[in-house]
Write a structure and sequence with these properties.
About 15% of the residues lie in helices and about 30% in strands. The chain has about 190 residues and is of the alpha+beta class. The protein has one domain.
Length: about 190
């Protein structure tokens, strides 16, 4: 019976495996002295307290996304976008999921590229007053003549909301718009 020959790839893979596992063992065996990490080792305040952490009721942002209600006064932010081929002029809808439970439907408001009474931020720094979700838009949407927030329907829930896009593009044209949103728990 003939013995298999060692190839360069087999030797290299075995050597890499041995080095990788021995490095992990070395790192586990080395004990870092107490108080040995200080300001020179910390980059960009990476170990400082997270702002608004007290508002999260002891939950991390990841936990907050999947359990319980968003605490009062906490604002979640995100992006929205819509891109399709037009079927002709008419109304289209863009949906936004908050990724969290606000306990009740928020009042939706469209701020566009400016501000409103309850939406005083901007597309780059979206804000919303308590109990509101505010939609902002980046300039120059394609084929969209106006947008409206949708309230009081099955599309506006405790987990998300929708916007109505009024399209004036001919059939087959590219229709697109994008922006940001902010939702604040009442």
């Amino acid at each position: 019976m003939r013995r298999p020959r060692l190839s360069y790839a087999n030797v290299t893979a075995t050597l890499a495996l041995v080095l990788a596992t021995s490095g992990a063992g070395y790192a586990a065996a080395v004990k870092i002295p107490r108080n040995s990490v200080g300001s020179p080792q910390v980059i960009n305040d990476s170990l400082k307290e997270v702002p608004n952490a007290a508002k999260l009721s002891g939950q991390t942002p990841v936990q907050l996304r999947y359990t319980g209600l968003v605490p009062s006064g906490v604002t979640l932010r995100g992006s929205w976008g819509y891109d399709t081929q037009s079927a002709g002029a008419g109304d289209y809808r863009a949906y936004v999921s908050y990724g969290a439970d606000f306990g009740a439907a928020l009042t939706a408001e469209y701020a566009g590229t400016g501000t409103t009474t309850h939406c005083t931020g901007s597309v780059n720094t979206p804000t919303a007053q308590g109990g509101f979700v505010c939609f902002y838009i980046f300039p120059s949407p394609g084929g969209v003549s106006s947008l409206n927030a949708i309230n009081g329907s099955a599309l506006n829930t405790r987990w998300g909301s929708a916007m109505q896009l009024n399209v004036n593009a001919a059939a087959g044209a590219d229709v697109f718009a994008n922006g940001t949103w902010a939702a604040t728990a009442p």
